[in-house]
Amino acid sequence: MSYEKKLEEYINFFEKLNKDIKIDKYAEIYEEHIYFEDPFQKTYTLNALYKIYEEMFQNLHKPEFKINECAINQNIAYIQWTFSFKMNEKSSFESITGVSRVEFAENGKVISHIDYWDSSKNVFEKIPILKNILIFIKNKIKT
Question: In this predicted structure, what is the pLDDT of residue 96?
Answer without folding.
Answer: 87
